[in-house]
Predict the 3D structure of the following.
Amino acid sequence: MKGRKRLTYRAAGVDIERGDDFVRRILPFAKSTRTHSSIDDIGAFAGMIDLAPGNWKDPILVACTDGVGTKLKLAFEIGRHDTIGIDLVAMSINDLLVTGAEPLAFLDYLATSQVDLNVHPEIVKGIAEGCIQGGCALIGGETAELPGFYTPGEYDLAGFAVGIVERGKILSPTAVAPGDLLIGLPSTGIHSNGYSLVRKVFEDRRRYPLEKPLPGFTVPLGDILLMPTRIYRPEFALLRTMDGLKSAAHITGSGIPGNLPRAIPDHLGVSVRHGSWPIPAIFDAIRSAGSVLETEMYQTFNMGLGMVLVISPDYEASIRSALQDQGFETFIVGNVVDKPGFHWTRSDRPTQSQPANPGQKSSERRSPPRLAILGSGRGSNMESICRAIDSNNFQAEVVCVVSNNSKAMILERARERKIPAFHVSSLSHPGSETDALLDIFQRCKADTLVLAGYMKKLPEEIVRHFQGRSFNIHPALLPSFGGIGMYGHHVHEAVISSGAKFSGVTVHEIGVEYDRGKILGQRVVPVLPEDNPDSLASRVLREEHDLYWRVLKRHLTTAHE
């Protein structure tokens, strides 16, 4: 009609050009998740998976889907969107793992009123990080602009995962028998269930500001509540190479009593020993602040156990030893019994255990190790250690950071965290480097040395001074590809040139001989046919970030006790 303004899709609220820009921005994130089974063609109508590299004999595909729930509301309020994607991936990948499946691929669905080029790429960045942690490829997704459907600034997420397992290796309750043991793997906190109750408990912002710690805590409440869900892929990757694992339960909504029975036959039951694992302090804070009954807590939250394994007692020692060698904590929390149902060993109604909670201050708790971190480069391993400390997963204190490179980013990162940072080299302290280092360690009261990409051999005097209390991480499986000259990309170039099928990460004590100290933990990283030094280095570094603090925690905790 004459004089009537013509409508467009953009005027209706959907901007195709902005959507295309969004896709261009997230492509690098998706490509960073590429695996040997993925086929690079993001932007096509469907994602594809190549099963040939696995040499499967009788494969079964496994698929599942999940979301994040009302934890999203906290992300909106805090304005942090780079970790919620990890939660999205974790909820589906962990469900895949308990079937015995190896994750292959992930797809996401993001629905919002309008694409935000500042916020939504951060979500996909988190999804990509979750895929990397889960060992799967982000092969596609859907972003739906639904103007008028969602409140501006809000969004919803759904995820879809595909995995594969040999028919004969499916984990199933049918193999479970009375006497089998229940092995608990710790959670990183609340994970992604129960947030409707969490938000109700802490809804009064005058009493519970998200930017400040709760009384007795050292980390802001918002950081604790947004702690990403742990993805248990490394543990299950190891367990798939061993005998003894029969079944497993991912502890999500309805807690331990609601999920653990799903991992055993109907005619059997489980007896869980209350108080046999440490419960993160945030759960006691929720219970106290909301006057929540103990039974309600256990039927809503994971209470510190994100995964429970059902294993044959004949394999307890080998399974727990293998997991602990790679830095993973385990707890014997109960066993399978003849009587059907879920049973607490002390009563039908659980009572709150009171283990030491690393998230709380305590005058009675022994002093944590005081770490001096030495590095020459970016400091990403330092950051992973600091994040583990920030999230209360590792009780330690970084008291100083030292670099032989005055322009190293690790010094900047330390200063941003208000950690004392020092440059010590032959240029800054000619002829007195050793004395300068020892003086710094003494002034900062450091009792443990942690080398994180430190491109210089420690003086023998310092090695002997911190004997048994100095550690290094090496980007290969020592004793292979170690020694003088084997550092950084030189290692990955040597691995690929040798034709090796596997590389990995080694955490070891520092000895007088280069790379010859006692090995404390290792993790294998497969070398893919298409790998180059950069791609291999990237995957090895991710494992370094997860392994280093875990091994330090295990070893230093044992040393203190």
Notes: The longest strand covers residues 155-166. Residues 533-560 form the longest helix (28 residues). The radius of gyration is 25 Å.
